[in-house]
Design a protein that fits this description.
The protein is mainly α and 76 residues long. Helix content is 64%, strand content 0%. The protein has four helices and no strands. The mean pLDDT is 90.
Length: 76
């Protein structure tokens, strides 16, 4: 689920978490790390520099969805 160009990070993360929670209820096994990876790939081009910084400075195996969205929200 791609982030729309005119969508705020707060709205996108809320929409994404709704989908992730629905998938978990249906029995899909999604870890935070898998969702973090998906977010990093699906955000618009304007976040590319911030994504690069996050990849360089954070341990992606322990980065939570909330931490990532908070970091990207600060970019806005």
């Amino acid at each position: 689920m791609k982030m729309k160009d005119n969508e705020s990070m707060k709205d996108y993360s809320s929409r994404l978490m709704d989908v992730v929670n629905q998938m978990k209820l249906l029995g899909e096994a999604y870890t935070d790390q898998k969702v973090v990876e998906k977010i990093m790939v699906l955000v618009p081009q304007k976040f590319e520099a911030k994504i690069s910084v996050i990849e360089e400075s954070c341990d992606l195996q322990s980065l939570t969805i909330a931490e990532l969205t908070s970091k990207l929200h600060a970019q806005e």
